[in-house]
Amino acid sequence: MILLANPNANPVTTAAMCAIAAPWLADLQGWTAPTGPQVIVTPDQLDRAADGIAALHPPAECRGVIVAAFGDPGADRLAARLAVPVIGIGAAAARAAAQGGRAFAVATTTPALRDRIDALMRGQPGRYLGCHMTDSPDVMRDPDALDHALLDAVMRAAAAGAEAVIMGGGPLAQAAVRLAPLSPVPLIQPVPEAARAMARLLAR
């Protein structure tokens, strides 16, 4: 069993991410944070989510954990404690985006997390060009407005030289699927990239 751990307290998002990851990981089980915000949008929320993930005790049959929030909260601490692979969707997306030496950027909805996202992306290999944000996380309340705002952010990233753009957020997984055909450059979807990375690790 592979555990997809959603640090956001939103079981609907957990189910959506599991459905997106399922083609690569058939034995997937979702876990949703029991408390906290439905969408992590501030550094304090990210820090509290990290504490929750770091304290996770997966079932004995667990063969790997995907931390399914873009800031990868608590992933390093959990990996240091467990004997199974732990993959954060942010780091997995960055590795995929940087393949072939591509310059890459992030498009997302959380301006308050810019510094945290920048730090995570700069800690990965590749040429990171920065974040392109929507004006506010509030746009997530309306799927049509969300798609419009995110596509604008993707276009700005491409115009700034990004050769691939990461859709930055676990709760944005469905928007990433919808927008991929419209992007002028490869749109990197963090949940599938983490699922592929986990499948490769477990196949060794």
What topology emerges from the helices and strands here?
Blueprint: E1 2-6, H1 11-21, E2 28-32, H2 43-54, E3 64-67, H3 75-81, E4 86-88, H4 89-97, E5 103-108, H5 114-122, E6 127-133, H6 143-159, E7 164-167, H7 173-179, E8 187-188, H8 190-203
Parallel strand pairs: 1-2, 1-3, 3-4, 5-6, 5-7, 7-8
Helix pairs in contact: 4-8
How many domains make up the 3D coordinates? 2
Q: What is the 3D shape?
A: globular
CATH architecture of the largest domain: 3-Layer(aba) Sandwich
What is the β-strand count? 8
Tally of alpha and pi helices: 8
Which secondary-structure class do the elements indicate?
Answer: alpha/beta
Main beta-sheet strand count, sense and barrel state: 4 strands, parallel
The average pLDDT score comes to 95
Query: Could you give the distance between the termini?
Result: 16 Å
Walkthrough of the structure:
There is one protein chain. The protein has 204 residues and is α/β, with parallel strands linked by helices. It has 2 domains: 2-88 and 192-203, 3-Layer(aba) Sandwich (Rossmann fold); 91-189, Rossmann fold (3-Layer(aba) Sandwich), CATH 3.40.50.1860. The chain has 8 helices and 8 strands. The mean pLDDT is 95.
